[in-house]
Amino acid sequence: MNEPDVATLVVRRIIRATPERLFAFWTEPEHLMRWWGPNGASCPAAEIDLRAGGSYRIANRFADGNVVWIAGVFEEIQRPHRLLYTWQLEKPAASRERVSVSFEPHGDMTQVIVTHERIAGAAARTSHERGWNGCLDGLARYVGESARLGTP
Predict the structure, then answer these.
(1) At 82, which CATH number?
(2) 50, 65, 115, 116: which could join 9 in a potential S-S bond, CB 3.0 to 4.6 Å?
(3) Model confidence pTM above 0.70
(4) Considering the domain boundaries, does residue 85 fall inside one?
(5) Reduced to 3 states, what is the DSSP secondary structure of residue 124?
(6) Distant-in-sequence, close-in-space partners of 143: CB < 8 Å, separation ≥ 6
């Protein structure tokens, strides 16, 4: 039996916010739930135990009402510049992938770099690319809305 191809994906976005603000929006459930999800999905629930060895669970609710949970464990936290965690769909149980998120300051903006590793093949990589681009679109929109509303 052949092993599936393993792929890596890197998605980048420059957002007008500090690394501290973006790190908080990525790791605090009350913020994450307002922007997370691929296009056409929402995040009705998120649980985050932000510490090395701590777990997280994030729900993606799709337009058809189907909810898919993503879960994993934080391997490394370098506040406010980097997160490293495992990534897997809870049902059906999938292979354990790995995601790192870096927040690199560029003046009054931050480059967010998502690196998703251990992806089982090209089709899954394409799906993750759409998902991460949708998430980063949502994060950028949320940052803009928060700035207009004065949200800390």
Answers:
(1) 3.30.530.20
(2) 116
(3) yes
(4) yes
(5) helix
(6) 15, 16, 17, 21, 22, 25
